[in-house]
Amino acid sequence: MSSFRLVLLCAGCLTLAHAQSLPASSATVTTTPTVSPEPARLAQLQSGRIAPAYPVPYEPATPEQIKSVLDRVLTYLEGASSVRVIDAATKQPVTDLAQLPAQPRLERTDFLLTSYEWGVTYAGMVQTAAATGDNRYRDYVATRLQAITTLAAHLKQQTAPADLPPRERGIALRQVIDPRSLDDSGAMAAAMIKAARAGVAPDALRPWIDNYLEFIATKQFRLADGTLARNRPMPNSLWLDDLYMSVPALAQMGALTGETKYFDDAVKQIVQFSARMFVPEKNLYRHGWVQEMDPHPAFHWARANGWAIVAMAELLDVLPENHPGREAVLQQYRAHLAGLAATQGGDGLWHQLLDRNDSYLETSASAMFVYAAARGINRGWIDAKAYGPMVTLGWNAVAQQVNAIGQVEGTCVGTGMGFDPMFYYYRPTSVFAAHGYGPVLLAGAELIALRQGKGADSVIHDGGVHFERATGR
C-alpha cells in the first residue's frame, strides 16, 4: 500500500479516503513546519479577540486629545497668518494703528486674511474659544479683525472704490470695502457676526457686516426665482459652494437683527438649490448646475457637499423653531447626512468624489461632515446612536491629517466647476490650501462639546464604538 502524509489545507482539505484514492505518484503530501505563535498572540487566538490593525485610532478621542490637535493648528496659524501692517509707499512696518500712513496695507502672509476661507477659520476660532474657554482663539480673531476693519475704514475715507488696489494675495482690502461676489462677502460676514455676538468689537464690525449683507441681499446676481447664481463658467450657473457663501451670513444676520427677511431668504436658498442640485437616488448634491444645460451631469464633489451640509447646520442652529421653512430644511439636512454616512471611507475620511472610491481621500470636506453631524447630535436633530460612531471615526481620521507643526494635510486646492471626472481626480492637495483650517477647528470644537455631552458615555462594546452603554449580555 502506498505510504502517505497528510496536511490539512484551509479550504477543501484532503481527506484520508481522497489521499488513498490518488495515484501513488501523487499520494504524498508535503507538510509545512508548524510555528507556534507567541504566548500573547496565542491567547488572542484562543479567545477569539485579535486586535485589528486600524490605520487610525479607533477609540473616541478625549476632549484633551482633541484640544491638543486644535492647539497645534492655532500655534501654526499664529505664525503663518500673522497680522502686520506696512506702509505701501515705504514698505516699512506700521506699529500704531491710530497713526496710519496714506496707503496702509496688510503684509503678505501664507494665507489671505480677508478671504472666504479665512472667514471660516475665524468662525472656527470663535467656536473653539467658546468650547474650550481658551481666549487665545478669541484673541486671534480680535487682532486680525481689528486690523482689517481699521485699515478698511482708513482706505475708504481716502480712496474711491474704483481706485482701490486690486485683489492681491495677502493685501486684499478692496473686497472688504467693495465686495463684488459671494466669495468676497458671505463667509467673512458670518464670521464677523459670530465674533460680534461673542463680544469682539461689535460696534467696529457692524458697518462692515451691513456692507457685506447689502451686497448679498441686493447686488448679487440671482435667477428669476431669487436663487443666488453666477454667470461663470456659463450664464445662469449654480455653484453648490454658494450655499455656504450666503446662507450662514443671512442666518446670522437674522439672529443679530431679528428680521425675518434674512431667515426667509436663507430658507429659500436651501430649498431652491436642493430642487435643482440634490440627487435623491444617492442623497448627495451635484457640484454645478447650469440652467441651459440638459441633462445636468452629477459630480458629487466632496467639499461642495461639505459647504451644503454646513450651511444647513448653521441655518438650523439659529432658525426659529416656529419658522414655516424649518421642517423642510431639517428634512433636507437629514436626507443629505444619510447619503454622506453611506459614503464614508473605511479609514474614516471621505473621497474627493463621494461616490467614487478610487478618487483620493480629502480632509477639508471630511472635517465639514464631522462638524455638521456632530452639531446635529448635540442639538438633537439626529440620533447619536446612529451617527455618533461615524462622527467619532471621522474626527480620528481628520486629526491624523494635522501634522506635527499644525498644518492640515490632504486638502484639495481651490476648485472651479467641472463636468468630467479627471478635473476632480487630479486637483492637487496642499497644506497651503486654506480651506482645511476652519473646518478642522469647527469639527474639533464640536467634538469637544459632544464628548462632554451626549458622547460622554460612548464606549467600545464587542469591539465597536457605541453611543449607549449596554444594559445586558
UniProtKB/TrEMBL annotation:
<dbReference type="GO" id="GO:0005975">
    <property type="term" value="P:carbohydrate metabolic process"/>
</dbReference>
<keyword id="KW-0378">Hydrolase</keyword>
<dbReference type="InterPro" id="IPR008928">
    <property type="entry name" value="6-hairpin_glycosidase_sf"/>
</dbReference>
<keyword id="KW-0732">Signal</keyword>
<protein>
    <submittedName>
        <fullName>Glycosyl hydrolase family 88</fullName>
    </submittedName>
</protein>
<dbReference type="GO" id="GO:0016787">
    <property type="term" value="F:hydrolase activity"/>
</dbReference>
<dbReference type="Pfam" id="PF07470">
    <property type="entry name" value="Glyco_hydro_88"/>
</dbReference>
<dbReference type="InterPro" id="IPR052043">
    <property type="entry name" value="PolySaccharide_Degr_Enz"/>
</dbReference>
<dbReference type="InterPro" id="IPR010905">
    <property type="entry name" value="Glyco_hydro_88"/>
</dbReference>
<dbReference type="InterPro" id="IPR012341">
    <property type="entry name" value="6hp_glycosidase-like_sf"/>
</dbReference>
<feature type="signal peptide">
    <location>
        <begin position="1"/>
        <end position="19"/>
    </location>
</feature>
